[in-house]
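Milestone M4 deliverable, item 7.
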Amino acid sequence: MKLEKKIKKFSGLSNNNLAIGFINITSYGYAFVNIKGFPKDIFIPKKKTNRAIEGDLVQVRFKNRKSGKKIEGEVIKVLKRKRKNFIGILKMKSQYGLVIVHNNTIHVDILIPIKEFNGYQHNEKVLVEIVKWPKNSKNPLGKIIKGFGVSGEYKTEIFSLLSEYGISYEFPKEVEKEAKEIVLKKNSDLNMRRDMRNINTFTIDPLDAKDIDDALSIRKLNSNTWEIGIHIADVSHYVKEGSFLDKEAYTRANSIYFVGTVIPMLPKILSNDLCSLHPEKDKLSFSSIFNMNNQGKILKSWFGKTIIRSNRRFTYEEVQKIIERKKGDYHEDISTLLFFSKILTKNRLKNGAISIEKVEIKFHLDKKNNPTRLYLEKSNEAHRLIEEFMLLANRKISEFFSLNLDGKPSNRTYIYRVHDEPDFQKIFVLKKIIEPLGYFLDIKNIKTSINHLLKSIQGKPEQNMIENLILRTMSKAKYSTKNIGHYGLSFIYYTHFTSPIRRYSDIIAHRLLNYYLTKKNNKLKSIEFYEEQSKHCSEKERLAIDAEREFLKYLQVKYIKKYLGKEFEGIITGFTEWSVYIDLLVFQTEGMIRLRDIQEDFYTLHSNNYSIIGRKKRKVYYLGDRIKVKLIDANIEKKQITLGWIKKE
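Output delivered:
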């Protein structure tokens, strides 16, 4: 009988009390199985999971529920494994080895027979495959497929993380070959492009940036009109749809930025060289050209292919110094662009945009890639200048594509960057956390209230924590052909067009706009095709963000290890039945205290999940309360920080 028929047969309640569903196994060993049509999940005791692993499709037998009680059952059979391969740390015993997996993908250790050691070492991070699970054995038997190096080392964590997320470090040979051929040919269509090589043009990027995909140009046309160009690397000119290179870029969908390392979407000879807008070189670009008057009003717009020649590469720090000192290379051009960017910011905020200026956690790494210093990088005027012009290009391009000259919808297929309204429950939790800190949130007027909150926390120790909490309340932005607007930016039309070297979504946006401009509608695919691509890009983006966060957490835990035993101030950000989560303000990272380890009283979670209360003294701690803690442990393997509660006198 096929799997689909089995699922259909056992879906919902049945006379023989059998059902099929996906199992969720807790870290404590007991589990729950979600059955379609059941009002509640089936509870599976620890000893009745029958060798099932997190996410497996299982067949269960359940007991008839007594009134008011949960449905309890047992796993009869594993129908389909969610996965067989796991990444963990090898711990050597005298007669066998255990691979311990710390990311909750499996709730038991994997046993490695001594004959399968094959030179792998104690504390080595490995990829292991489950080969069998004997009926009466607590642990499955595994075979090591690959080693990544000693756990906790920089390269080990990079390569194991890439493997965990299914991301390839190297490009296939046919992709590298195709990229080299493109570089050798350097095909260009100069006759079809607007020549802008004689106009002052420059790039502004981080100091360590290798893939430079945007540039700005500016010139004065008359006493009341400026021409501002936003030039984006013309990646789609080189990466042809359907090529090996295109398929690989689509599979990756993003470049991934780890501290000290980039895993590019395109081979480096394209991302760092041919496509990148380096100074003093002719470069192909896809540009948005705006004529603006002295009040910042757009008088005229033009979109199309160009050739540019950047005069200078700036870092954000260099431009910020020029702004502050009011002198330096291209000072007049930079100050004019800054003037217009401030008008754009003012208009955007007036229109209801949420103004989150995210503080980024940065690390200095030594020669062995160990973190030696943690610092916070705040957005300055140079960052905001670039950001506003990129937002302008993304907005105006999507408007140009989506609207006819009369302002009515064109109904043309395009890829949008959409952002839905926030979840009310998350907003309510945010309100609960910030109130003990002396801040207020008006539920009835969210955007205005959030912007007021963001201003209030400027320069405060809790600024980064609250900004992170605000971001968590927001819906996740995504790509779609179905435009619902962008809530956070308050844009009706918005796309991603300005980073095609590192985002495949932008390559799609470039292609669609070019098909429209050159009237090559025959190259268009169905709306279903582009919606599928949009969904893929959204999923890969989430994957990249998760991988980047996990690697950052590894560095944070490794860095904080040197402060074991020290005391710090923190803010309570969350509760579970067993633990309290604390944001360590000085490190901008989260640690955990087990409720059972709090010595001053026996604390339990309140039913509202927003506070804990002591059984004897009835002392209550709320979300947002400031407390003193001691750093007890920083476990690099688990990427977990354990704190101790300092008793209040």
